Automatic annotation (TrEMBL):
Protein name per its UniProtKB record: Histidine acid phosphatase
Biased composition (Polar residues): 516-534
Ranges annotated as spanning the membrane: 479-503
Composition bias type Basic and acidic residues, residue spans: 614-627
The organism's place on the tree of life at top rank: Eukaryota
Stretch list, region Disordered: 516-541, 561-627
UniProt family annotation: Belongs to the histidine acid phosphatase family.
Gene3D superfamilies xrefs: Phosphoglycerate mutase-like
Length: 627
């Protein structure tokens, strides 16, 4: 890697032509991939979450984007953006101009939100035209204008893709990819991994007591867990003063180097092939970068199709795997600037594709610049490795040594860019499902819609479908077969039971417990005799247990539900006597019970159910039909 002073001089030299060409091009769109900010470790006593440092990192990265693409030099901003995107709202966030996609990991979503706060900070009295403008902020009845809360906070739209969402394949193509997981296991069993394990074991054993004891066992502190160990140690080094004083920077650098070696092997190996689809080389370990490459083309194409109206700024937020994979696919990992791409990306690392046209091709109609033709559009690649003040935008040539590049990042036409990206990309999510033998819930339907049949597989890297095969070759997917099997099983058990209950006239009822056998009529007479002494609003059907019902002389029964009635107050029916109280003429004088709120339903015993008194098979009572 070049000395720091030499690199800084190169960056300073590179900044001069960038400023010089700022007025010579029109930027129409930018598509960026942003890595999340500093977070708590994946493994440890806490749940992975963005830290205040991580939020500040992404806020700063968003501000960098604003300085480059958005601001107009008015208000609190003294200068214009370096390369403003044509037609983008300079102050008020317009979600129709942005396309923001994130994984559903909480720390990634939070990173996206922090970034967008830096891109569009709070603004008072600023309203996007396509969101209703100042009219939407006006209250006609009072003739006043209202600002958004939090001093004009801007509310961005962030699409989050869970693993049940097909969009997740674009932002994290390595997840749910069975072929990728199988290839990763192959690497773990490889000679290369075994050699790294042996050569680094003593180093991991040396630092285990100081950093990992209590979180990782000594037997798992080795190269096979290189990334997780670096993830945990780097967090502790940054946030725990004791660990910071125990470890030194060289040890942290060594942990990062070993993690980088491991992750390059897992995400940047372009010769590893999946055994599931029969392709000669599908670069399965770089699947995350392959999806990212196609996604960038799709995002820029959306801007072109809409003549610059939508996708002015497309932002994807995710993890480091797509970045590492793309560095390998595009030749950056082995090119003249390979030193900038060998290590794990730092928090907030960002790569951008700029879609622009030259000033010499500019056509103006009135006050508007017309959107250029496709053959007048160019693309260049930029990378910012971190979020510190010394991390500047670097412009790099993609796919060096191919016909798609003239060795100048500023002269790559869109057609050259699109062709090179499609050569390494994956055309669709359906192709991804097929290539990965993916277990994602959305894959069976997408494969069917794309015309895939059993035994089909594209012979190309992009995975074209085999829709011409006969339908007789189709097979039911395992997921669909499982659903069908569950439904059939339920039907087999449920239908006989339903038929038995319906046609067998089976009725479930409580059977009264007694020492002898009684007929239904005998049991009924016994119960009526027991209840006759207590009477009440149920008449003969009332039970002794129904002590919370009062009956007035007018014959209206009601349940006590609390309030003053239960505190000895004067009830509305003052002549009512609670049933069970000692009154003249009552059979006993000791039936008085404290008044309390108890449901009559709760007090009724199950064995006093009235079902026994019903005749189910007798002749129904004839209605009286004469006057």
């Amino acid at each position: 890697m070049a000395p720091t002073s030499f690199k800084l001089s190169l960056l300073a030299a590179a900044a001069l032509p960038a400023l010089a060409v700022a007025e010579d091009i029109d930027v129409w769109a930018a598509a960026g991939f942003v890595m999340y900010g500093d977070r708590t470790p994946l493994n440890g006593p806490t749940t992975p979450a963005i830290t205040p440092l991580g939020a500040q990192q992404l806020y700063g990265q968003g501000s960098t984007f604003r300085n480059r693409y958005v601001r107009d030099g008015l208000g609190n901003e003294s200068t214009d953006a370096l390369l403003p995107i044509y037609g983008i709202e300079p102050h008020a966030l317009d979600s129709t101009q942005l396309a923001v996609l994130s994984t559903d990991d909480s720390y990634v979503v939070a990173s996206a939100q922090a970034f967008l706060q830096g891109l569009y900070p709070p603004q008072l009295n600023e309203y996007a035209y396509d969101n209703g403008g100042s009219t939407a902020a006006t209250v006609a009845s009072t003739d006043t204008t209202i600002n958004f809360p939090l001093v004009g906070y801007q509310y961005p739209h962030v699409s989050t893709a869970s693993q049940q969402d097909p969009s997740s394949a674009w932002v994290a193509g390595q997840l749910q990819c069975s072929a990728y997981q199988a290839s990763a296991i192959d690497y773990r069993r490889s000679t290369a991994a075994s050699e790294m394990y042996s050569s680094t074991l003593s180093f991991y054993e040396q630092i285990w007591p100081a950093v990992f004891e209590g979180v990782y066992s000594e037997s798992t502190t080795n190269f096979y867990n290189a990334y997780d160990l670096y993830d945990y140690a780097s967090y502790q080094y940054a946030h725990d003063s004791e660990v910071h004083s125990t470890l030194n920077q060289s040890e942290i650098n060594a942990l990062r180097t070993y993690a980088s070696v491991q992750q390059r092997a897992l995400s940047a190996n372009l010769t590893a092939t999946s055994a599931t689809d029969g392709r000669s080389n599908n670069m399965i370990r770089a699947i995350a970068g392959r999806m990212l490459a196609q996604q960038a083309v799709n995002q820029l194409r959306q801007n072109m199709v809409s003549s610059g109206a939508s996708n002015k700024l497309s932002l994807t937020f995710g993890s480091y795997e797509p970045l590492i994979s793309f560095f390998a696919l595009s030749g950056l990992l082995d090119g003249p600037d390979a030193g900038d791409f060998q290590m794990l990306p730092a928090a907030g690392a960002t790569m951008v594709f700029e879609l622009y046209s030259l000033a010499s091709d500019r056509l103006v109609s009135g006050n508007n610049t017309l959107y250029p033709e496709d053959n007048e559009l160019h693309v260049r690649f930029l990378y910012r490795a971190g979020v510190s003040s010394t991390d500047d935008w670097g412009t790099y040539s993609l796919f060096p040594g191919t016909d798609n590049n003239t060795n100048s990042a500023l002269n790559m036409t869109y057609s050259q860019f699109s062709g090179a990206m499609k050569a390494v990309g994956v055309d669709s999510v359906a192709d991804w499902c097929d290539m990965c033998d993916a277990a994602a819930v959305f894959c069976p339907g997408m494969l069917e819609n794309a015309g895939y049949t059993s035994g089909s597989g594209s012979g190309s890297g992009s995975g074209s479908s085999s829709s011409g095969s006969s339908s007789s070759g189709k097979k039911i997917s395992p997921a669909l077969a499982g659903v069908i099997g569950a439904i059939v099983t339920l039907a087999v058990f449920a239908l006989p039971i339903a038929a038995f209950l319906l046609f067998g006239k089976v009725r479930l009822a409580f059977v009264p417990k007694s020492s002898g056998s009684f007929s239904a009529s005998q049991n009924k007479n016994k119960r009526l005799s027991n209840n006759s002494a207590t009477a009440g609003f149920k008449g003969e059907e009332r039970k002794v247990q129904d002590a919370d019902v009062a009956v007035s002389r007018s014959g209206v029964g009601h349940e006590r539900v609390g309030s003053w009635e239960l505190r000895g107050g004067n009830p509305a029916n003052s002549d009512a006597t609670p049933i069970g109280a000692s009154t003249p003429g009552s059979p006993t004088g000791d039936l008085t019970r404290p008044e309390r709120v108890r449901s009559t339903i709760i007090n009724r015993r199950p064995d006093n159910d009235d079902d026994d008194d019903m005749a189910h098979f007798g002749r129904p009572v004839d209605p009286r039909e004469h006057v």
